[in-house]
């Protein structure tokens, strides 16, 4: 039984999260826990500077009014959260997924995920959240934090689900990439998909051997993979391959470098998630 933790918010991606969970459920038996987290900033009013010429009585009355507003805001946030979860549960049950539970929590998303992920095999999250700038293609503010914080496999849902038939594996020959190939061949969810392995880099004997090693593992598991070694930056090579060849799903490892290093050179993982318009499954 595959246990799925699905993160639900009020963004357009929430329906897609449910549809991706339903796709997984069509491949293997699942139990689902839907989680909606009400952030601290969703519960409290903006801080107000009461220093200055506000009298004590007026200040006390204002603080009481702000406290009442916060209580009302919290009540609305909880009611909204319950509605979002019930709608998501109904969507999954309509798709034939029956083992669905819901959880409504207050706090930080990452801390809450860490609390609930122990019993999960897969986390499903939307590529963007309610606060993302959709016009500029910004990722959700919590996405990278969640991916970095967990050792679970993560499915990052695209804005709208479409049937998954072709899998692209982003590969660099490193330890994390080899683990990704190993996870692919072990996954019943990915079994039977058309498959291609793409490596961004120079045409060298070493790089070609790394690609061949990946192909051997996939062939032994029953795949018939294409392989390609393409000159260029990884994010550009992968996103162009996805677009031109019509892949439905990208599989990759994640964040093999430190946060400090990424401050200076950026994160290839983040850029590929941002630029590819298909769902991404990340193995750690």
TrEMBL record:
<feature type="domain" description="UspA">
    <location>
        <begin position="2"/>
        <end position="156"/>
    </location>
</feature>
<dbReference type="InterPro" id="IPR006016">
    <property type="entry name" value="UspA"/>
</dbReference>
<dbReference type="Pfam" id="PF00582">
    <property type="entry name" value="Usp"/>
</dbReference>
<comment type="similarity">
    <text>Belongs to the universal stress protein A family.</text>
</comment>
<feature type="domain" description="UspA">
    <location>
        <begin position="212"/>
        <end position="284"/>
    </location>
</feature>
<dbReference type="InterPro" id="IPR006015">
    <property type="entry name" value="Universal_stress_UspA"/>
</dbReference>
<protein>
    <submittedName>
        <fullName>Universal stress protein UspA</fullName>
    </submittedName>
</protein>
